[in-house]
Amino acid sequence: MRDRQNTGMPISVERLDAREWPDHLMTALFAEGFPEFITADREAKRYIDRVRAWFAPLNIVLVEDGHTPVATGWGVPLRWSGRVDDLPTGYTDALRLAIALHEVDQEPDTLVICGAVVHPDKKGTGVAGQLMVELCRLAEDAGWPRVIAPVRPTLKHRYPLTPIDDYVAWTRDDGTPFDPWLRLHLRIGGRVLATAPTSQTMTGTIAQWETWTQMRFPASGEYVIPAGLSTLLIDRAADSGTYIEPNVWVRHRKPRRRNPEPCRVSDPRSDSECQQART
């Protein structure tokens, strides 16, 4: 366990499995949640149990006042050459590669940050940035020279018809990325490497998609869905819906100091929009 200082109560860093967390505290941490369809990636489901078992040391939680979890994040280790053309295709492929590397007992050299969640009450406090710094520190502690993340842009769902390559190119008047989660990644030293247009593929029956989205799909075709970063393709003849989620590959540098000041965000609204992201 490591202690960090933030405004207000001290924050410590622990492995998530270091203790049993009361249900009400975890419910509060994940209160804003993710879209229900986020678990419909069938290939990712093949790996997730082994990921949790084998890579538990890479699943951390930030704890305030020694009791309350205020942020959590996790990653997987793999080997990556450092070349953009050698990146995994996205989130699911990173899980696959990490499992395959572990099964042949090879040493990793790269941490892939796969998820990050911040307590809703901690919006605008810098906790999101602090979490990312602590996740990057896992690679430093392990001696891995590279940290990358397939980032799920938090405002992309408002522009599902816009190609991910175009969306990533959008900037604010000050030249920083339009998306607040990407902006935070770059603010703490990350840089965009490439887009991942097919990071995850979610599939289900029409009935499942109607439950997940609270929508009806009376005909085959493409639909804009709540919280979707792209569109849902419905095939009524096959009783299926397919949603392909794009992400953005970001590379991080290792933390410069062992005891950094808490990460600050100059625009509180931008920080408030980047509290729930798979990365």
Name of the CATH class:
Alpha Beta
Largest sheet features = 11 strands, mixed
**Tally of individual domains:** 1
Helix content: 25-40%
- Name the shape in a single word: globular
Give the uncertain stretches in residue-range form.
257-273
Percentage of β-strand residues: 25-35%
Describe the structure concisely.
The protein contains 8 helices and 11 strands.
Fold and architecture overview:
The protein is an alpha+beta fold. The chain has a single domain (2-198, 247-277), classed as Gcn5-related N-acetyltransferase (GNAT) (Aminopeptidase), CATH 3.40.630. It has helices at residues 23-29, 42-54, 91-103, 127-142, 164-169, 180-187, 206-213, 268-272, and strands at 2-4, 11-15, 59-64, 68-78, 110-118, 146-151, 191-204, 221-223, 232-235, 240-252, 276-277. The protein is globular and about 55 Å long.
Note the main attributes of this structure:
single chain, 279 residues, alpha+beta, Aminopeptidase, 8 helices, 11 strands, 27% helix
Topology (elements, then pairings):
Elements (H helix, E strand, L loop, with lengths): L1 E3 L6 E5 L7 H7 L12 H13 L4 E6 L3 E11 L12 H13 L6 E9 L8 H16 L3 E6 L12 H6 L10 H8 L3 E14 L1 H8 L7 E3 L8 E4 L4 E13 L15 H5 L3 E2 L2
Parallel strand pairs: 5-6
Antiparallel strand pairs: 1-2, 2-3, 3-4, 4-5, 5-11, 6-10, 7-10, 8-9, 9-10
